[in-house]
UniProtKB/TrEMBL annotation, chains A, B, C, D, E, F:
PANTHER family: ENOYL-COA HYDRATASE, ENOYL-COA HYDRATASE ECHA15 (ENOYL HYDRASE) (UNSATURATED ACYL-COA HYDRATASE) (CROTONASE)-RELATED. It comes from the Bacteria. This is Enoyl-CoA hydratase/isomerase family protein. Pfam families: ECH_1 (PF00378). It comes from Marinibaculum pumilum. Belongs to the enoyl-CoA hydratase/isomerase family.
Amino acid sequence: MDYSHYQCLEIVVENKLATVTFNRPEQGNSINHQFHIELIQVWQDMMEDGEVNAILLAAKGKYFCVGGDVKGMAERPMGDVRGENDKILWPGLSRHMLNAMLECEKPIVCAIHGDCIGLGATVALFTDITVASETARIADPHVKIGLVAGDGGAVIWPLLVGPNRAKEYLMRGNRLNGREAERIGLVNHAVPADEVPKLAREIAQELADGPTWAIRGTKYSVNKWLKDQLNTILDASTAMEMVTFHTEDHREAVRAFAEKRKPKFVGY
Amino acid sequence: MDYSHYQCLEIVVENKLATVTFNRPEQGNSINHQFHIELIQVWQDMMEDGEVNAILLAAKGKYFCVGGDVKGMAERPMGDVRGENDKILWPGLSRHMLNAMLECEKPIVCAIHGDCIGLGATVALFTDITVASETARIADPHVKIGLVAGDGGAVIWPLLVGPNRAKEYLMRGNRLNGREAERIGLVNHAVPADEVPKLAREIAQELADGPTWAIRGTKYSVNKWLKDQLNTILDASTAMEMVTFHTEDHREAVRAFAEKRKPKFVGY
Amino acid sequence: MDYSHYQCLEIVVENKLATVTFNRPEQGNSINHQFHIELIQVWQDMMEDGEVNAILLAAKGKYFCVGGDVKGMAERPMGDVRGENDKILWPGLSRHMLNAMLECEKPIVCAIHGDCIGLGATVALFTDITVASETARIADPHVKIGLVAGDGGAVIWPLLVGPNRAKEYLMRGNRLNGREAERIGLVNHAVPADEVPKLAREIAQELADGPTWAIRGTKYSVNKWLKDQLNTILDASTAMEMVTFHTEDHREAVRAFAEKRKPKFVGY
Amino acid sequence: MDYSHYQCLEIVVENKLATVTFNRPEQGNSINHQFHIELIQVWQDMMEDGEVNAILLAAKGKYFCVGGDVKGMAERPMGDVRGENDKILWPGLSRHMLNAMLECEKPIVCAIHGDCIGLGATVALFTDITVASETARIADPHVKIGLVAGDGGAVIWPLLVGPNRAKEYLMRGNRLNGREAERIGLVNHAVPADEVPKLAREIAQELADGPTWAIRGTKYSVNKWLKDQLNTILDASTAMEMVTFHTEDHREAVRAFAEKRKPKFVGY
Amino acid sequence: MDYSHYQCLEIVVENKLATVTFNRPEQGNSINHQFHIELIQVWQDMMEDGEVNAILLAAKGKYFCVGGDVKGMAERPMGDVRGENDKILWPGLSRHMLNAMLECEKPIVCAIHGDCIGLGATVALFTDITVASETARIADPHVKIGLVAGDGGAVIWPLLVGPNRAKEYLMRGNRLNGREAERIGLVNHAVPADEVPKLAREIAQELADGPTWAIRGTKYSVNKWLKDQLNTILDASTAMEMVTFHTEDHREAVRAFAEKRKPKFVGY
Amino acid sequence: MDYSHYQCLEIVVENKLATVTFNRPEQGNSINHQFHIELIQVWQDMMEDGEVNAILLAAKGKYFCVGGDVKGMAERPMGDVRGENDKILWPGLSRHMLNAMLECEKPIVCAIHGDCIGLGATVALFTDITVASETARIADPHVKIGLVAGDGGAVIWPLLVGPNRAKEYLMRGNRLNGREAERIGLVNHAVPADEVPKLAREIAQELADGPTWAIRGTKYSVNKWLKDQLNTILDASTAMEMVTFHTEDHREAVRAFAEKRKPKFVGY
């Protein structure tokens, strides 16, 4: 299969293992519109590629992913969710991505070697097995820019760490490191940063070499819970996130971020 | 908004933060009928009060809450759930309270500075973020007085610590301290008793100062899971609790409690 | 009640406590067809026996249970799920067993004194309270013989340790010891191997002596979540497991197991 | 298989079709405790009998079933749900019966040749295909004797006729005939009374002769919806029914029934 | 209980029956903000009023209810959902109303004597038993003014007439009369217009005179399905409705309505 | 957008309306592997095509669709679900198609001008609004060839006609005509055959001209129920269908079909 048209992802297939790498290191692998679109397409391509039995998700550069492009939002309001020519904000992009991930029956291992923020964290946590650096910071800081944590965080965090811990991390938008993340069950493994790639690859290769349909059916069975939870929560949360895009508090947060000052919220 | 008619709760609003305090310290903040009624009303008032952006739930005296008034039950059988003039035991009170809590979109932080038992534990665990003293004891001991843990414990404990740990704590009615509670995910934070008020207030004030609708929508999204679970479990558990009010084992347990001896159960 | 017709289980009732013991120590308590049938019947008998108020599940010999009889599979393909005279593989056996366990309102405590594998692990984890040896190894290695972890593992592991940890253990089929199992919430208690019987019995006797209906109603309420999850996941996972019985990868895995070599999977 | 120990049911197996007949015609096939127990056991026996591929449920005498034995209730309060030696009313009997029906994968056709009331209606509507006499009257009149329609009516009526029509029939306890029942979807077929046995038997025999596992898997798939609904509703409704057994209104209704007068309800 | 402060509703309690009447006949009982607020409060008052055992919902004037005040929307954009001083559109009003209706355990009969549109239809269909005039027109025409049918229609119509018929009525916003509504199961009874009040009152009084808790528990049991459905659908649909308030198509539809011309939609 | 690569579908876009036509009239529009693949792809293309606001699904020739290619199955066992090079039967194809249909937010109207069988019926019933010829025959006859009705029938039939009517049509595989289908709610409209195209097109064009996002959000909201049902049922039913592909009864049914004789089933 030819993956050369991907711009934000680098995809290499070898020994039945596809390595999918975030490839915008200069931008901290921040997720812009093109990146988001590729994050929908890639899981469908993975399903269709007969050479692929398992997937390793990794990232280039210092960070795993710094999340959405907040600076860009100041110049292009709602630019992060609204495409170039879209004339209305409508929930859908995140749903398509998460649906594609959950429909992908092939196992996905994620190597979180560095900071993993926002939509980047959602993607990482929706993979099957996560290997994190002990010092990598993980967070879903939607509220910090005045938005509902609507694009998947409210679905997956509660399943991994329980509803109350999830509510704290999502309502405050604060960070935890990989070691703490492993302790409370947010990630599968926490190891020193330089051991992340090796451990993640070993697990992924083991799965690529394993009995194909036994592994797929097992993964798919567990994913039925995630689908149920997604149907209960995601549509409401993304639509409410759309509503917060129209608030003054969101605009103030984006301005404050650009001006490197604390925002002053007005409550609407 | 005027909160002066509250008898068991003290409510103070300042800087967009409402501090709601259990105010029956001499009775260990045990929850009688009036208290229960106020615990339904307060969350609706919180929602309507335009000055309130976040809520801090705390308690006066040595204990956070010792639960229902068991001693009173011996004199007034079923007195804890049945109002003065009620002629039938019917599930509803706890449902109204928990519904009101889950419908309250504003974030609630709970400062568990001392022992937190029974219905007190249910209320605390249904808030969003809990800060507990390392030595505070937490338990839902319905079974100790021969009753099904029907008023919410069977809903929230399993979500926080998994079904098997929940079944043990609820079927045995035994206690765990704040430190252990944090380790297994029952509470968000465990700190020395004297640091509880400060940390809880800091988090609550941070939320009160944050972007209103981003926080509310995020909280509300996660709560959809709790509502689903509540609809599956609560009505059955409260109705079964009603049934156990008619058992000899319940009456014996209440008598034994009053007489400070071990109960002898007969199995009906 | 007369339990003398049980061949694989030994059942003793005393002081309102039934002790149900896996009784095939020479075979590592591996679960053959007869054993499976008894594991359906026993929970119905437990419900009907008026002398029984609580159940202690334990096992004789070195292992708690080594799982299904893989060696037998090589000689008698699909022999583990297909009865002697069955002419079609059809999901049902595991469902009947798990339904019977979840319908049993009496509390069940499980003493995992040694290794606890596959279907043995599923049975153990579907009890209410588990006491494990710190060094006992727990695993659901269906994938190791090329099968979907379809007979309950995909239902209960995610509820106890979250979906991502569950996916790792089930997709890799690897083992964890009791100490680690307790840390992540898979079992309730981990103690030295020789303390397992005593602690498990103490808890079970405490429940046997407790208020009957309060305990049953409490257990039953929490189980409603498990039933919901079972209805969402189990039928799909067992039927997919049936499908994998028809794969070359399963046959190769069974051969390799018998020949004590690494399997070479072909992907169909 | 030997069915001679059944007292209230007559069971004949021929040509892969089991005909299960209500056999208390003098009592209008009213369901007493023994009858209820047999209505749990029979579905398990049907599953195990290798000679049976489909089931025809029918009844002797003028009525299909007049429901529970209300007259008996006046002499033996709560006698209808409480066994001879039970010392506590506890929900369970109806659940075990409905679970057994839903777990029975073999298709069940019901011949409703005459009036079909209360628990009789619940059993009939939980079969798969119903053939009713145009003039047979169908009702679930729990409320007429002051009880919640808790033993399955609140589960199955809404699925067949929508929640609002179901609420009217269940809250008023009024009757509809077979013709109207067919029009609104409560039964599959309405034909003249004397054609009921023939049509029902034809359909049942057709299913008995059909492809076994295709039919079972199809039935079982649809039943997953009923199981979901049952888990949501039944436990709450049966437990609330237990609570109404303790009301004065129930006792008054039973007395009024025995004295053939209109009851005067007091509201507790 | 004193109901004199209600402005849009007239409430009379007699013989345990509360008659709640829409009381803005000159405005076709169109639902403005004050009306909406009263439609939340009234169900809570009904629950608390010890004199009330059943509720009859009716309306004065020619129409049952013409829905929201579309003309007002042109002058006061989003005025129908946004209160006078609200600075942000946020879903919640409809949820609070529907929650209050579903939590009201007392039976509600609705007399739809004339046209019943939009939010008026939602309220009517969320009651328990509906009696409609054969010629009354029923519709949920949100889409006609460019809005998602988000305030409850997408929850209740599918349950009453199946998802496909519901999608047609809701996506086209077209009307059906009472006779057709009865045929497809949307309402319980269709009778000539002048018989509506009598039949509705008879049913309501019958329920008011019936066994209180038997009726409440029965209603409540069925409502658990509606709650489940509401949690799955409502939050998403109301939040998406909010998003459509920001569309040009909505503004155009409102203008066209005021100018009595066909709207020209642009697709954003 | 270029649709010229479609082989089994003809796609024309005009006035914001896409007309998608089954284009294998000589084969009765029977669905082979290529057709199935296109029925997955087309809904994704519909979503992405900015020129399309609504979709009309129709068919050329005498029949709407005669279902899968049973004759082909005799020559190429399992050929209908297994692709040319697939080496294992695995559920997925139907899921991908139904997911794509449910994710398509644009309204779909279906013109069932002639017989509509099996997978053809599933596709038709999963559209939003169906217009059927009064004499067209509709059926899902999986059981007639010894297979579980696993590819969606067990999901959608019960939602449209209730579980019991659905079980009869699916377990017997018998046909009903459009008039009867409308009466029981299976289709939205039944009209004479020659009026089907006009009415279907009128409705579809009306939706294409309507307010885009209001319609999409309304449709999507109702679809959340279908998704919930699909997650509960489909995976189990498709996997059980796979299992029945391995039965002798399936092979016999296919042979009997080719030989135009009645099958003789053996029960395995």
